[in-house]
Design a protein that fits this description.
The protein has 748 residues and is of the alpha+beta class.
Length: 748
């Protein structure tokens, strides 16, 4: 009897297979909700760790780790007030915010009541929503079908790996548009995947239009994404090429045209409202727009930026040479071989940095993930290739590179998933099983190794996030609040973000991102301070800034020449992000501006000024077709010297320095033909030199300049038979000294 009962009990025990089947069924039922909770938990935990440390550093006040965050806030407030695309209300259209969409998203929060620094709370909500949505959207890359159990299980690696690199997470929570951009990229990814799956011609074209609209969102969030859209479009077209060339071309056009039109509309709008096709940010930050660099120097700058963008991540952000967290394995001596090897490997930071890269390359090695990996790797590489044109790629914790890092982390998680799959080996031999075991061990150890190196890096980035936010609070926001109390008419700033946002006063951005009407301050900032001052001369006196809020080490003689008093100082202790230890407020004094506009020496017999060019003034130069030999020539210079008409007074003028053997030229228009004229050139000779004058390509005479301690207005007579209504004037410096041209007039 006992034996029968025992056998009955054994027969009712569940088998391992049935237990596994029950567990799999249960997992499939709870998986959708469980992954949502998992992604939400990682998102909120990551956000809380960074924002919590920021609030700890600032004593509970919201701030941001970058001044550029507040540039977004400036545009968002103006948008909420009914002035979209304006940096400050009243300055007019500005292309200074390269992300067109993000300020509109922030403006929703401003209208909802997130004012002042609490707008950063809204930015944090937006970032968390975007990261959470990204983790949900990208999960599909891991799933081969709804019943792909390993794909569902391994996708749980995505949140910790995506949020596992400190510098990348820093950018996600910084308040910049990085998190929002990653969400727009995920939308484009979903649109591309949908397009790849459809068969019917009508459905394919409809899906291609959806991808095109996602492309519009991408390029208006970050214009560097133009090539990202192109990769999605080309990949989709190739997938549909099996249905014929017409189908493939239709998909390509529909996927790419909307984004291309969006960029074209943006460029045309810039041209209409600012006079420049490019955005202000591109004018200021791209070496391509530097008038003084040679083509070789521009190429060298680009190559340096590419190397920096890659190596800064590999040997710094992805790596830590400490490996200190493996101390749990015991002392790193001969008695513990594992700890000794681990510590030895950890001393080489570059080695640890390569591990995430290798994991991200694994999807290329497997047929089931190779296609998507090629697409994502193409986007990653092209992104770095595009942002390397931007000289600012080396600053702000490398935030410009971080979208590429985000894509790489997705690839790394996908690489771990596909490398640990066993389905392909189920019907293979034992050798294949052993190969999988070795591969799995290497992948797991690499993952743990990379994680070990990110522990101290993540801690450092949290500290950096909090300290940088405190720096911005202590200097920029404090200065802005001071200005809000003193209520100046307009403030000149060299940092266009937090000062103007906190003060809510009209501003003038000397770097040029903010813009002011059609005056080309962005281009002028690249040419030099003198070019910017020449533009301030063009502003009505009532519109000129009455205060300067600048770093005294940034702008040379600006505060010495054009301020009357130091009003306030705003130092920052323990600075890790601000442009200088001290940012000061000066009372502006512009009384010297415009003093150099008038000709002091009218040639005998002449009564009229027929043409004039103010050299160094970009507006005047453009009107007169001015050009100078490049490179390393034409640097903007400026002087304050005694006024020739009244030595008791000072006179200011800006001009360009023409090196020996180089020249400048301009077009003089409006002269009376066949009537004798004079060319008058204002300079301040530092050494004796001779300037050869050519009119319409023919020699017309020399200007012999002797070194003086003041202004000189040199005169060259032009015979009547050489005078036409329009004349091309070229000034060639034959040396031996430099020639600085400040002004030129044609008189009759």
């Amino acid at each position: 009897m006992g034996v029968v009962i025992e056998e009955a009990q054994i027969s009712h025990r569940p088998s391992i297979a049935s237990v596994f089947h029950t567990a799999r069924s249960l997992f499939r039922r709870v998986d959708p909700a469980l992954y949502v909770l998992w992604a939400a938990a990682w998102t909120l935990t990551s956000a809380r760790s960074f924002y919590g440390y920021m609030l700890k550093q600032t004593g509970g006040e919201w701030s941001a780790p970058l001044d550029d965050v507040f540039i977004h806030f400036d545009y968002a407030r103006a948008t909420a007030l009914g002035h979209p695309f304006e940096w400050t209300v009243g300055n007019g259209y500005s292309s200074g915010n390269t992300s067109l969409t993000y300020p509109f998203v922030l403006a929703v929060g401003w209208r909802a009541g997130f004012r002042d620094c609490s707008l950063m709370i809204w930015a944090a909500i937006v970032a968390a929503t975007c990261v959470f949505g990204f983790l949900l959207a990208v999960r599909g890359l891991f799933l081969e079908s709804d019943r792909d159990d390993w794909g569902h299980v391994s996708s749980y690696l995505l949140p910790p790996m995506f949020l596992g690199v400190g510098a990348f997470v820093w950018s996600l929570w910084s308040g910049m548009e990085v998190a929002f951009f990653m969400a727009t990229w995920a939308i484009a990814l979903l649109a591309w995947q949908r397009l790849e799956r459809v068969d019917g011609n009508h459905r394919a074209h409809a899906s291609a239009w959806w991808l095109g609209l996602a492309g519009v969102l991408l390029v208006t969030t970050r214009p560097e994404a133009a090539l990202t859209v192109a990769v999605f479009g080309v990949a989709a077209a190739l997938a549909h090429a099996r249905f014929g060339l017409a189908r493939a071309m239709g998909v390509l056009v529909r996927a790419g045209l909307p984004g291309a039109l969006a960029l074209a509309v943006q460029s045309v709008t810039n041209k209409v409202f600012t006079g420049e096709w490019s955005a202000n940010g591109a004018l200021v930050k791209l070496a391509l727009n530097n008038p003084y660099l040679s083509e070789k120097e521009k190429v060298e700058d680009y190559i340096f930026n590419v190397k920096y963008a890659a190596l800064r991540n590999l040997d710094y952000h992805f790596a830590s040479a400490r490996g200190e967290h493996m101390a749990d394995f015991g002392p790193a001596d001969g008695s513990n071989v594992f700890a000794h090897v681990w510590t030895s490997l950890s001393r080489e930071a570059w080695w640890a940095g390569v591990v995430p890269l290798v994991l991200a390359m694994l999807p290329l090695a497997f047929a089931r993930t190779r296609r998507v990996a090629i697409v994502l790797w193409a986007e990653l590489v092209l992104w770095i290739g595009v942002v390397a044109f931007n000289g600012q790629v080396r600053w702000q914790n490398e935030r410009y590179v971080m979208p590429a890092v985000g894509i790489m982390l997705v690839l790394a998680a996908l690489g771990v998933s596909v490398a640990l799959r066993t389905r392909a080996e189920r019907h293979g031999c034992g050798a294949r099983t052993k190969l999988w075991a070795v591969r799995a061990a290497l992948v797991v150890l690499s993952l743990v190794f990379a994680y070990d190196h990110q522990i101290p890096k993540m801690r450092d980035q949290k500290w950096f996030f909090g300290r940088a936010s405190r720096n911005i609070r202590d200097q920029h926001l404090a200065l802005g609040k001071y200005l809000a109390e003193t209520k100046p008419r307009r403030v000149l700033v060299g940092d266009a973000g937090a000062i103007l946002y906190a003060s809510d006063r009209p501003g003038l951005d000397l770097i040029g991102l903010g813009g002011y009407g059609k005056l080309p301050f962005a281009r002028a900032s690249v040419h030099g301070l003198g070019a910017s001052l020449e533009l301030i001369e063009r502003m009505p006196e009532s519109e000129r800034p009455d205060l300067l809020a600048i770093f005294p080490t940034w702008w040379g003689v600006l505060q010495t020449w054009f301020s009357s008093d130091l009003v306030a100082r705003f130092p920052v202790e323990g600075n890790v992000i601000c442009g200088g230890y001290e940012q000061n407020v000066y009372r502006a004094d512009w009384h010297l501006l415009g003093t150099g506009d008038r000709l002091r020496t009218m040639p005998r017999g002449d009564t009229e000024i027929r043409a004039v060019i103010d050299v160094g003034d970009l507006v005047s130069e453009k009107e007169n077709g001015y050009a100078f030999d490049r490179p390393a020539n034409g640097f903007v210079d400026m002087h304050i010297l005694p006024d020739p008409a009244n030595p008791a007074l000072d006179m200011f003028d800006g001009g360009r320095r023409i090196n020996v053997g180089m020249s400048e030229s301009f077009l003089a228009k409006g002269l009376l033909p066949s009537k004798a004229a004079h060319l008058v050139v204002r300079t301040a000779p530092e050494r004796d030199t001779r300037v050869r004058v050519q009119i319409s390509g023919a020699y017309a005479g020399d200007l012999d300049l002797a070194r003086t301690g003041g202004w000189v207005e040199a005169i060259l007579a032009i015979p009547a038979d050489r005078v036409t209504e329009s004349m091309h004037i070229q000034l060639v410096n034959d040396g031996p000294g430099d020639f600085v041209d400040f002004h030129a007039w044609l008189t009759q």
